[in-house]
Design a protein that fits this description.
heterodimer; A: 340 residues; mainly alpha; 13 helices; 4% strand; elongated; B: 538 residues; 5-stranded parallel sheet; 8 strands; globular; binds iron/sulfur cluster
Amino acid sequence: MKATYSLFLVFGLVLVALIGVGGLGLHYLFGVIIPYVAVLCFILGFICKVLNWGRSPVPFRIPTTAGQQFSLPWIKQNKIDNPSTMWGVVLRMFFEIFTFRSLFRNTKVELYDGPKLAYASAKWLWLFALMFHYAFLVIFIRHMRFFTEPVPSIFQFIDKVDGVLQVGAPHIYITEIIILVGLAFLLLRRILDPKIRYISLPADYFPLFLILGIVVSGILMRFFVKTDVVGIKQITMGLVMLKPVLPKSVGTIFYVHLFLVSVLLIYFPFSKLMHMGGVFLSPTRNMINNNRMKRHVNPWNYPVKVHTYEAYEDEFREKMVEAGLPVDKPLEQSPAENKE
Amino acid sequence: MALPSARELFSKISHRMPKREWMDIPVEIKPGRYCYPANPKSLEYVGMPYARQWSPLDEDWKLPENWMEIIRTGMRDRLDRFRTFKIFMDICVRCGACADKCHFFIGTGDPKNMPVLRAELLRSIYRGEFTTAGKILGRFAGARKLTEEVIKEWWYYFYQCTECRRCSLFCPYGIDQAELTIIGRELTNLLGLNTDWIATPVANCYRTGNHLGIQPHAFKEMIEFFCDDIEEVTGIRPEPQFNKKGADILFITPSGDVFADPGTYTCMGYLMLFHYLKEEYGLDVTWSTYASEGGNFGFFTSHEMMKRLNAKMYMEAKRLGVKWILGGECGHMWRVIHQYMDTMNGPADFLEEPVNPITGTKFENAKSTKMVHITEFTADLIKHGKLKLDKSRNDNIILTYHDSCNPSRGMGLLEEPRYIIKHVCNHFYEMPENTIREQTFCCGSGAGLNAGEIEELRFLGGLPRANAVKHVHDKFGVNMLACICAIDRAVFPPLMDYWVPGVDVTGIHELVGNALILPGEKERETNLRGEPLPGKEG
Ligand code: SF4
Ligand code: SF4
């Protein structure tokens, strides 16, 4: 159900662009205004969200330690999974962000008669999630050739490498295949795995379908509903230079693609997609486990009511003296009633 | 309530998901799955709000009239104070990597025991109350209304989480349900919803220094009983010191070690170790009756309560004028010491940077907090050859070792206890790799869940741990489970009896005590438990 809703929502968005541009001829709205609004929304939204997170302090240093601590000199520390220095944290975050290290640990629990529990390795999620994210990244980077003139050689190079298969005309990009496979896995897993389906919200399907829509419209544009690439570059460069132009030779399919991307940008800061920013700020991962070495300061630490030794001794002095325990005040002076 | 047989209980576990969506399933408070509410007197003693008699089975929980306002303000306040709370509310992608990592989900199959859904219980309210999308789109954005039902659900499920952080280890963003449970419990506490197994120990700790409410003279007496027992076994009587001003080291251990078997044998181990070090090297250690609880039940209540109870450690160290503090074997106690104490109640500038006076080793990793874990201390002594050990005395034991959640995932104390084990015991086998070290499974009774009335829940939660023990029991004949946590020592014996009969439970320092050759001791016939030593059975 939730998946269908989200799918139709994306269909609806496609329809909006088709009617808006193809039917009503609102090229300026879809080609200029919405993209500008979207970019602005994304940048401001992203910054606001991160600043908002940053406004709340981290009162305690609570890294999740995933290996041997730094302790006695002859005990081998796990410097990455339980970092005691800033460099260790940098490495830990590097592996977390670029190789999804925590997800790599994933296992799947199985129950057998016996009674017996087993933990099978379950690296598929890790693999496909990694494929999806890297493909996305490369596609993003290679799109930069639309927003730069002259195109820096790094973008050209990435474009070349991605098209290295030299199959089809124009060449199929490897990332086009990878991202489709990745998306298919993530979607099917969400729909077919009962546990994952159970925890999923519409907000989990929507971005998947949206990105799928973006990828599909992009592929259509290149292979099936061919449209004027030179014209597209004029539009994108126009947007970059703040001098928008809208050549007539560019087909509606491009506007659909652009609209879906705009929606993604607008949706991003308000959604779970902010995990992109959040992963850098997660206190259980980005803190040094030097807790007992260096005092962490809590900005809102406030004094609390405690039960003092004096109050304790006042209550138990007699019994303490009787048991031969040392006391601070001798028995005679003890104010009998002074209990807390 | 009598429990079904292990086999029967196991066969009832189903990981099949219900047909209805979780938001549509009203919470059903099941006997055997919830702890009794707090005795109002205990809450009043420490000044917690809305102390009252109420029953989870009643329709009416007697919430204060403005409970909604309290929760809203409580949440806003915590969002402003904890970045973790904000981020963990915002970035979960529901990838499900954490779903089957929780021992309570594995054991009960209740979908709301999947860490991700436990968090969604809170997150759905966060969306509905604090985000624009949630306010407008409602359920489509994963939001729901704040109702009394929700509060009941929170109370029920936040007290089915042992704050073990296993979920956090597997989450790609480190989302830590333990942190959310702590915050969620703070919220329920604002409405006077707590459990007695937490609230009464809190009040006892506050008043007498330990969770059982043992008064100073009785505390001393109990330790003296242990000295009698040690004398019987070894012919040597340790002379522990109490509340001694000017001692070198203050020793604090969970009071469970003083009270309940088999923790008591671990306590004897400490006593023998300190006696040995005093005789051989003149080490001056004192116990305290005032700070006689290492464990911190406040941690299961609120950050503030944790701080109030923890304060005693530094206050006592200061009053006695010791150089540094040594801490006994305990799980969550060490999470509090390692990750919270210095921040809350420090700086400990009245103490010295800890140095082992016998080996000269500087405990670099404790130079600010100035509290050292006893396994760090003992491992250092063994490494430097300062202890005379006869490990064959433990030859009847085929051992495996359970990493407690907090020292593993909130500290990283993994090798120190293993190093000691290898020097005091000849037969040691590890459990399967996915169940030890940082991936260790909880005993199922931590974070204040060790109550008798939830035995079934605890046995189900303890199943993954027990099952891993069963594996090595069947394969290598393991007959003893070692741990460094007082709660473990209290809960494992019945848990093992249920799932893996024939496995006993010990602390590391009980093994040390048995292996340690005290100066001038008589030839021992039995171990500390009074069982014949290997070769002395006849
Ligand atoms: S592993 Fe983390 S991101 Fe994935 S569902 Fe669990 S809490 Fe959410
Ligand atoms: S902290 Fe432990 S008990 Fe709580 S949800 Fe996570 S895995 Fe389960």
